[in-house]
Task: inverse folding
């Protein structure tokens, strides 16, 4: 039987652990994609163009029941994925669109709207803002005060 002294044993143990770690590392993908939210949109291709340098902000917005963004615009396009709950978007013309969980919607630069959680539970959305460098991603504006009329575009095609 081969007997190793403490230093030799320690060296052999370290080599074994390194070899085991290398073997384990080969079984792990070098890239892991963790889904935070996923959705689907049948909308036309969104306009994601921003002139010049830009900032990108990815955020989780948590709307308690009754919470709203207030009337606002964005200085660049926004991609929104509704993770849970539902968001009611009121457009400048007064028409509304309800975005259920799993839906995706796109907001154009300068589009006046208000987003509200009109459900009895919490609504969560992931928003990716693409803004000109240094601009605030959300800019408050006055309520346009319009009422939706039959035939008005409710904003579904954005």
Result:
């Amino acid at each position: 039987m081969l007997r190793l002294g403490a230093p030799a044993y320690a060296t052999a143990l370290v080599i074994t652990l390194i070899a085991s770690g290398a073997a384990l590392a080969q079984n792990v993908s070098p890239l892991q994609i963790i889904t935070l939210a996923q959705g689907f949109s049948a909308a036309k291709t969104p306009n994601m163009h921003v002139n010049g340098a830009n900032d990108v902000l990815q955020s989780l917005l948590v709307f308690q029941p009754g919470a709203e963004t207030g009337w606002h615009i964005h200085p660049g396009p926004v991609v929104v994925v509704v993770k849970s709950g539902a968001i009611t978007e009121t457009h400048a013309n007064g028409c509304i669109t309800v975005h259920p969980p799993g839906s995706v919607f796109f907001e154009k630069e300068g589009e006046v709207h208000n987003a509200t959680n009109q459900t009895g539970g919490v609504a969560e959305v992931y928003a990716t803002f693409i803004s000109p460098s240094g601009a605030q991603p959300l800019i408050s504006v006055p309520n346009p005060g319009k009422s939706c009329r039959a035939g008005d575009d409710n904003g579904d095609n954005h």
About this structure: The chain has one helix and nine strands. The helical segments are 6-26.
